[in-house]
Amino acid sequence: MVAKDKNSDTLKIDPETAPEASAAVPAAAAAQQTLTVDDAHSTASYANFCRVSSTPEELILDLGLNPNPFAQGSVTIHVGQRIIMNHFTAKRLLQALAVTLQRHEQAFGTLETDVMRRLRSAT
Question: How many CA atoms lie within 13 A of 97 on its CB side?
Answer without folding.
Answer: 6
